[in-house]
């Protein structure tokens, strides 16, 4: 079975020429969830999003439906959509699924990863470190999630990649909802160690390091944490500023 996955598909911020309007809205919301700029329980008002992205509510609705299928958005009949807020029990289930998925992906990545893929992911880890060093925690968190999506690309298994995409974004919600303390990048050396083991073809070591990495992520969660809420205009302010700048430029 040949996988259609390309590295660019791992990064929602990399917009493709043939993307539709709902693709663009979907990518921006997905990024905002990965970067934890959209916390659990945030109301995703169709009218507000339509105004922010300058698209029809139909396009927004399509994007939200796609996100609901990935279980990171909940569409409530007659009450609109919100960012999912997993319960403690759901959090446990998500982590169990993530554990099974990550170990399967790691095993396949050891078998199928190419030298070029290893090189690309090392650059991604370097970008992750740079983001955290600059205090750009949102980008650092997103890049950390993309690291795990890149491992799924290495595994060369399309169904696993699709499942992983949903689980990574759901885990980001759990971290936003339940993580203790400030965002601190504790996973960089773990990511590098994982890459080293995959590149060396050491399956046992790679699986052991992945298990330790997942345990580390889970250990930072306080399941008594409370979600917060943010204004959609603030979350997507960078898009609005860029869009407004273009409009003014065109008028000039």
Question: Can you walk me through this structure?
Answer:
Residues 19-86 form the HTH gntR-type domain. One of its GO terms (molecular function) is DNA binding. Keywords: DNA-binding, Transcription, Transcription regulation. With 252 residues, this protein is mainly alpha-helical. It contains 11 helices and 3 strands, in the order αβααββαααααααα. The protein folds into 2 domains: 7-84 and 227-243, Arc Repressor Mutant, subunit A; 88-219, Four Helix Bundle (Hemerythrin (Met), subunit A) (Up-down Bundle). Helix content is 67%, strand content 4%. It has a 3-stranded antiparallel sheet with strand order 1-3-2. β2 (73-76) and β3 form a beta hairpin. The longest helix has 25 residues, at 88-112. The termini are far apart.
Fill in the keyword field for this structure.
Arc Repressor Mutant, subunit A; Transcriptional regulator, GntR family; mainly alpha; Four Helix Bundle (Hemerythrin (Met), subunit A); 67% helix
